């Protein structure tokens, strides 16, 4: 009986191994090989040199910082806005179903499609925002040509696209909270703010955690949006780790270093998501103890 | 007597049989044809469509098929690279930009052409067009079209074009002050290959170089002056700040709308600006890039040429195609119908062409001023460093000397590490 | 008020695309006012290859990946609910981690796999990595659904002498239909939208799926900036998905929320 269950799982597990485990192991090997246009695309063992190069590569650290900045900003915006939208959709309003569907639309569209759309919206000087700005007699906003602004434009586009996903997850959490808890709170004369702090947020915690971890992991791997919207510019100020690794493989034909970069990004992802999960757990324990 | 319904069924069956038989025969006949497949960026695929038909008519045993690639240079390279990396590349010939060739050759993807075209292959090429095809002692590419950076200027706004950076600034300022144009000069300032071309022209114009004896000299006073000048253009409002995200089409859009007095672009813009519905028709001329007194007016060479892929199974037929498409006759037709700049001297000097296209002589002069980007297998990295760092100066992130210092350090490190291995 | 804002925020950018796609190029770059046209759509639909090819390719890949994912995920999820708590727990944790993994980090190794196994430039082969990437989510969703089915039902079927396959086919699958529908839709959405792997696995223009095709259009023309064509492409590229969302919003939403509750 047992072995038959394993047999049922075998095809799925095999494919999972092939798609997730094999590549990571392959990177581990490739990161110790020089395989680039200079070696005629053939692997040559060079030990830990590429890891040293990664450590000394200021562009890697710059991209790490930029990826973290992008992730932190877009994930926190998405969580806040997502919570607000979820609370709004949880109200017994007219047309709630329609509103819910419409607000989910941005999430369903292909990232490259909407990134292209945003490029046009952010256009200087012919995009809609800059036309509006020009109509007011103000100077155009350099959405895509100023390093201090472009990364925020990317955060804006990402937030637009993925907030619905967060909102929906949180809405599911809200609807799982028993209504009598709210009734009891109302009987005791709790303000809406108190209800939110004391009932809604604590019970929503697992959902917030799932949304946070999932979004954080995805944001740290941001690629489509950046490649199409800014191509990493201006002045490399929006380049993400994934884009740098992609450039190394497909433009510079340096596969050994590309693999090293991909593993480096993976390590950062592990550390951050692990830290987020641990922090959250420690925090909720602490709160439990205080209560 | 066969009942009518059964008859119909038989007829149908017969038709189906005959149909499949003839399809099969047709397929067999097609099998005999030797297929040659070429990848080109979309505009060139459109321009060569008539030539391809002519070739197929004249060579009944070869079937020439052109794949229309993406429109943008880097996207075509990405497509070619991914198909080569995936193995079993479906192409025999690639139409290549001059800056990719060393990388492809080093990766072992190209077949040297000397054996196929003979030692005198490059003899007919116009000065400037022969650059960037042969290196490492072998011929890797044969140029189809020449391309070089030009400075476009408005004939309705000034008598003569500026020849020095200071003149360009002075004229722009005057026109802007008079309210004739909102902006003076637009160029390619985005973080991409086009910016490297812009910078190379100015490097030479200020008396500097990119590499000397394979060593970068990018923090030289001349190089810093060139970058500072670009930075100043933005700071003084002669160039819009949006230039930091401008490629060729964006610059052309702004210039064609009449919003700038000068533009740096490639010859295709000439044809575009003189289209019947263009607002600037007849109001534009071009020359070479400005330079400090005594320094050359340089034009970055950006020619397109055919390379034969090492993995091709139809090399002889592919070389036949290459010869035909780069012939004087073909180049003449491409210039007459599409305005593309030829690479052959005999075409430049063709009286019929000169009569139809007076700008050709000027183009030949500009081509003679052509300068080449470094021929290196790691050119993509070198150029990436250059445009990223110069872009930091254009956006005002860093001062020009600091940006060039950083660029010099990074370029040295790159060449040292690749020199050791390669 | 808040509702209006939400509507504007969600629909505004899409409406701007719709409007842009119908304006003439001159109107877009401010050279002329007014001017409405269907030219951009004509240009796209008659392009080489026509835009519909990309939509069709994406649909083919989407359907195949969905079928493959479900075929692998259903037995796996079933086995996970029956295999005993300890193993199931650690396996589920791994699967959940894989579900959050950003797929782009895998592109280089998958590219080499495609080359070594001659899978490149084949639409059907592309469903292999897609199924692999979607499996974690599908397994989690279906596992939650299996866990909801009372075990007595299956025991009754066992007593009637039904084999494993019969039990799955006649007893469990019908009860699983809603969860399967929602996971199918999510997998389809993923495959429709996936970019980095399609970008590296497909190099033939006529085989491109929507996402890389769009990015290539973004590579833009040397002549003029075809923003009208961009906008028309975004409209055409999103229309099928919007239709899908409107038709199946309940299943998609319940799929997402189920995953959250049980995950």
Overview features:
heterotrimer; A: 291 residues; mainly alpha; MetI-like fold; 2 strands; globular; C: 263 residues; elongated
What features would you describe in this structure?
- Chain A has twelve helices and two strands, in the order H-E-E-H-H-H-H-H-H-H-H-H-H-H.
- With 291 residues, chain A is mainly alpha-helical.
- Chain A has a single domain (59-284), classed as Orthogonal Bundle (MetI-like fold), CATH 1.10.3720.
- In chain A, strands 1-2 form a two-stranded antiparallel ribbon.
- In chain A, helix 1 crosses helix 12 and helix 9 (192-220) runs antiparallel to helix 12.
- The longest helix of chain A is centred in the last third of the chain and has 36 residues, at 255-290.
- Chain A is globular and about 75 Å long.
- The termini of chain A are far apart.
- In chain B, helix 8 crosses helix 9 and helix 17 packs antiparallel against helix 18 (400-421).
- Chain B is an alpha/beta fold and 422 residues long.
- Chain B has two domains: 31-147 and 302-371, D-Maltodextrin-Binding Protein, domain 2, CATH 3.40.190.10; 150-300 and 378-421, D-Maltodextrin-Binding Protein, domain 2.
- In chain B, 52% of the residues are buried.
- Chain B starts with a helix and ends with a helix.
- The longest helix of chain B has 29 residues, at 4-32.
- Chain B has helices spanning 4-32, 42-47, 49-58, 73-85, 101-106, 114-117, 165-177, 193-205, 221-235, 248-256, 268-273, 315-325, 328-338, 345-348, 351-356, 359-368, 379-394, 400-421, and strands at residues 34-40, 62-68, 93-97, 110-111, 134-135, 138-139, 142-145, 150-154, 183-186, 211-212, 215-216, 260-265, 284-287, 299-300, 304-309, 370-371.
- Chain C contains twelve helices and no strands.
- In chain C, helix 4 (51-82) runs antiparallel to helix 9 (164-193).
- The model of chain C is unreliable at 220-224 (pLDDT under 50).
- Chain C has one domain (40-262): MetI-like fold, CATH 1.10.3720.10.
- Chain C is mainly alpha-helical and 263 residues long.
- At the A-B interface, loops of A face helix 4, helix 17 and helix 18 of B.
């Amino acid at each position: 009986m047992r072995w038959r269950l394993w047999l049922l799982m075998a095809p799925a597990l095999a494919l999972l191994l092939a798609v997730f485990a094999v590549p990571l192991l392959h990177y581990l090997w490739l990161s110790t090989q020089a395989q680039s246009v200079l070696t005629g695309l053939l692997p040559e063992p060079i030990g830990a040199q590429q890891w040293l190069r990664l450590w000394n590569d200021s562009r890697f650290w710059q991209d790490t910082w930029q990826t973290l900045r992008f992730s932190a900003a877009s994930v926190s915006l998405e969580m806040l806005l997502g919570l607000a939208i979820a609370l709004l959709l949880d109200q017994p309003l007219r047309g709630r179903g329609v509103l819910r569907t419409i607000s989910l639309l941005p999430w369903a569209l292909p990232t490259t499609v909407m990134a292209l759309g945003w490029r046009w919206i952010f256009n200087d000087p012919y995009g809609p925002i800059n036309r509006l700005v020009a109509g007011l007699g103000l100077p155009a906003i350099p959405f895509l040509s100023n390093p201090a602004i472009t990364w925020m434009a990317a955060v804006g586009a990402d937030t637009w696209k993925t907030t619905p996903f967060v909102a929906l997850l949180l809405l599911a959490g809200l609807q799982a909270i028993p209504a009598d808890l709210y009734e009891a709170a109302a009987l005791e004369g709790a303000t809406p703010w108190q209800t939110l702090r004391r009932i809604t947020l604590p019970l929503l915690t697992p959902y917030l955690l799932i949304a946070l971890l999932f979004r954080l992991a995805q944001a740290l791997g941001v690629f489509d949006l950046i490649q199409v919207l800014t191509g990493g510019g201006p002045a490399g100020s929006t380049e993400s780790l994934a884009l740098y690794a992609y450039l190394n493989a497909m433009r510079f034909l340096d596969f050994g270093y590309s693999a090293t970069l991909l593993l480096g990004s993976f390590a950062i992802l592990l550390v951050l998501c692990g830290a987020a999960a641990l922090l959250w757990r420690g925090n909720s324990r602490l709160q439990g103890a205080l209560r | 007597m066969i009942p009518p319904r059964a008859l119909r069924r038989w007829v149908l069956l017969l038709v189906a049989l005959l149909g499949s038989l003839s399809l099969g025969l047709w397929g067999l006949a097609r099998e005999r044809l030797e297929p040659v497949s070429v990848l080109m960026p979309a505009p060139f695929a459109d321009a060569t469509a008539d030539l391809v038909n002519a070739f197929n008519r004249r060579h009944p045993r070869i079937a020439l098929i052109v794949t229309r690639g993406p429109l943008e240079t880097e996207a075509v390279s990405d497509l070619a690279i991914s198909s080569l990396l995936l193995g079993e590349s479906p192409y025999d010939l690639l139409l290549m930009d001059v800056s990719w060739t060393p990388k492809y050759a080093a990766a072992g993807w190209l077949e040297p052409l000397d054996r196929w075209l003979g030692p005198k292959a490059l003899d007919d090429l116009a000065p400037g067009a022969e650059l960037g095809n042969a290196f490492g002692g072998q011929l890797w590419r044969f140029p189809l079209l020449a391309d070089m950076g030009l400075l476009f200027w408005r004939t309705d706004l000034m008598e003569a074009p500026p020849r020095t950076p200071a003149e360009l600034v002075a004229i722009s300022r005057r026109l802007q002050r008079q309210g004739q144009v909102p902006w003076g000069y637009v160029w390619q300032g985005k973080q991409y290959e086009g910016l490297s071309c812009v910078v190379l022209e100015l490097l030479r114009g200020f008396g500097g170089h990119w590499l000397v004896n394979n060593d970068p000299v990018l923090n030289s006073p001349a190089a810093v002056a060139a970058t500072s000048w670009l930075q100043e253009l933005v700071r003084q409002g002669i160039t819009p700040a949006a230039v930091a995200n401008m490629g060729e089409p964006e610059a052309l859009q702004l210039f064609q709308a009449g919003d700038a007095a000068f533009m740096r672009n490639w010859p295709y813009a000439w044809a575009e600006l003189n289209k019947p519905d263009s607002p600037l028709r007849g109001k534009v001329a071009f020359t070479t890039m400005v330079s400090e007194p005594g320094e050359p007016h340089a034009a970055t060479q950006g020619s397109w040429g055919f390379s034969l892929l090492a993995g091709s199974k139809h090399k002889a037929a592919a070389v036949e195609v290459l010869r035909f498409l780069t012939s004087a006759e073909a180049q003449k037709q491409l210039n007459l119908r599409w305005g593309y700049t030829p690479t052959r001297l005999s075409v430049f000097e063709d009286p019929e062409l000169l009569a139809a296209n007076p700008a050709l002589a000027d183009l030949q002069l500009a081509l003679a001023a052509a300068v080449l980007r470094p021929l290196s297998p790691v050119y993509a990295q070198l150029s990436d460093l250059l445009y990223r760092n110069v872009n930091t100066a254009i956006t005002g992130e860093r001062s020009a000397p600091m940006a060039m210092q950083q660029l010099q350090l990074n370029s040295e490190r790159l060449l040292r590490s690749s020199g050791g291995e390669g | 008020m808040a509702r209006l804002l939400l509507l504007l925020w969600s629909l505004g950018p899409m409406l701007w695309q719709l409007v842009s796609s119908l304006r003439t190029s001159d109107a877009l770059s401010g050279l002329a006012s007014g001017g409405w046209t269907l030219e951009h759509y004509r240009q796209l639909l008659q392009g080489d290859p026509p835009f519909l090819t990309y939509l069709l390719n994406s649909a083919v890949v989407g359907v195949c990946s969905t079928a493959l994912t479900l075929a692998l995920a259903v037995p796996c999820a079933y086995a996970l609910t029956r295999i005993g708590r300890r193993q199931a727990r650690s396996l589920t944790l791994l699967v959940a981690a894989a579900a959050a993994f950003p797929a782009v980090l895998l592109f280089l190794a998958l590219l080499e796999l495609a080359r070594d196994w001659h899978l490149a430039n084949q639409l059907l082969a592309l469903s292999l990595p897609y199924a692999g990437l979607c499996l974690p989510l599908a397994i989690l969703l279906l596992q939650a659904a299996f866990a909801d089915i009372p075990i007595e039902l299956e025991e009754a079927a066992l007593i009637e002498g039904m084999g494993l396959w019969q039990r799955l086919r006649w007893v469990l699958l019908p009860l699983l239909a809603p969860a399967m529908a929602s996971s199918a839709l999510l997998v389809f959405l993923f495959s429709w939208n996936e970019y980095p792997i399609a970008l590296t696995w497909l190099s033939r223009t006529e085989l491109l799926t929507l996402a890389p095709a769009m990015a290539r259009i973004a590579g833009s023309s040397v002549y003029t900036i075809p923003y009208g064509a961009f906008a028309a492409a975004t409209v055409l590229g999103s229309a099928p998905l919007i239709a899908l969302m409107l038709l199946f919003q309940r299943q998609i939403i319940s799929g997402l929320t189920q995953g959250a509750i049980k995950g």
